[in-house]
Amino acid sequence: MKFRTMGRHIRDAFKSLSRNGWMSVAAISAVAMTLILVGSFIAILFNVNKLASDVENDVSVRVFIDLAADESNKTTLKEQLEQIPNVESLSYSTRDEELNKLIGSYGDEFNLFGGDDNPLHDVYVLNTEVPEQTGEVAKAAEGLEYVSKVEYGGTTAEKLFDTIATMRLIGLVIIGGLLLIAVFLISNTIRITIFSRSTEIEIMRLVGAKNSYIRWPFLIEGAIIGFIGALIPTAILVFGYSFLFDIGTQYLIGSNFGLLAPLPFTMYLGLGLMGIGVSLGSIGSVLSMTRFLKA
């Protein structure tokens, strides 16, 4: 297509938007409302995925060392634990460090158990290559000498992994469904615009205009509608996410979990919504024009 022809199509697209003011507003509103929902679910899904990853990374196998074990026994046990398949890293926490963590969590009343009265065990903390491997690693560690007990969450951890996987799947299905709804809404809204200009299109066809020539202005018009419609939800989500991030961060202070930082997440989200808006607008226009030109 020649640059001059493309320029004419762009001008025609803007003239059409201006002439069909209320129809254009309806189409832009349909895009904006749909993309607000899509953007919200995308933000929720990505943060659920982030929190899920934090939870998964926080799941570990805690191996409590028998009180009768001396330093040599502990060293031997460490070497045996490191040889267990799927163990990615290993750290050591003394019984005094474990008591300090308990005091930090539940209060100074646990100071009574300091020194020789400390009933806690030294602990090896194992992290696996994949969180779902914690059960296998725990079973392997239980059979080693000088191991008092092993904790990893058991069925609770396994249910957690299943729940996280289900939430991710549901999020993807919802986003996919919203995108299909967006195409349907935009397609039908633009189809109304096309029907309102059916006489104009018929005249173009009678004078010999090709379908591609007729289709291009509508495709560009749909892309413009999608782009403008994406600007509104982008602005709302950028400011709204920053506000909710500050609130969420206050609740998560002191934990190992966190939300995605507003930058660069909102920048990528905004660019993604604009790309989705332009794509949906173009697809909706093409679908509507194809059906009309075949009629």
UniProtKB/TrEMBL annotation:
<dbReference type="Pfam" id="PF18075">
    <property type="entry name" value="FtsX_ECD"/>
</dbReference>
<keyword id="KW-0472">Membrane</keyword>
<feature type="transmembrane region" description="Helical">
    <location>
        <begin position="265"/>
        <end position="287"/>
    </location>
</feature>
<feature type="transmembrane region" description="Helical">
    <location>
        <begin position="216"/>
        <end position="245"/>
    </location>
</feature>
<keyword id="KW-1133">Transmembrane helix</keyword>
<dbReference type="InterPro" id="IPR040690">
    <property type="entry name" value="FtsX_ECD"/>
</dbReference>
<keyword id="KW-0132">Cell division</keyword>
<protein>
    <recommendedName>
        <fullName>Cell division protein FtsX</fullName>
    </recommendedName>
</protein>
<dbReference type="InterPro" id="IPR058204">
    <property type="entry name" value="FtsX_firmicutes-type"/>
</dbReference>
<comment type="function">
    <text>Part of the ABC transporter FtsEX involved in asymmetric cellular division facilitating the initiation of sporulation.</text>
</comment>
<keyword id="KW-0131">Cell cycle</keyword>
<dbReference type="GO" id="GO:0051301">
    <property type="term" value="P:cell division"/>
</dbReference>
<feature type="transmembrane region" description="Helical">
    <location>
        <begin position="21"/>
        <end position="46"/>
    </location>
</feature>
<feature type="transmembrane region" description="Helical">
    <location>
        <begin position="169"/>
        <end position="195"/>
    </location>
</feature>
<keyword id="KW-0812">Transmembrane</keyword>
<dbReference type="InterPro" id="IPR004513">
    <property type="entry name" value="FtsX"/>
</dbReference>
<feature type="domain" description="FtsX extracellular">
    <location>
        <begin position="59"/>
        <end position="150"/>
    </location>
</feature>
<feature type="domain" description="ABC3 transporter permease C-terminal">
    <location>
        <begin position="173"/>
        <end position="291"/>
    </location>
</feature>
<dbReference type="Pfam" id="PF02687">
    <property type="entry name" value="FtsX"/>
</dbReference>
<comment type="similarity">
    <text>Belongs to the ABC-4 integral membrane protein family. FtsX subfamily.</text>
</comment>
<dbReference type="GO" id="GO:0005886">
    <property type="term" value="C:plasma membrane"/>
</dbReference>
<dbReference type="InterPro" id="IPR003838">
    <property type="entry name" value="ABC3_permease_C"/>
</dbReference>
<keyword id="KW-1003">Cell membrane</keyword>
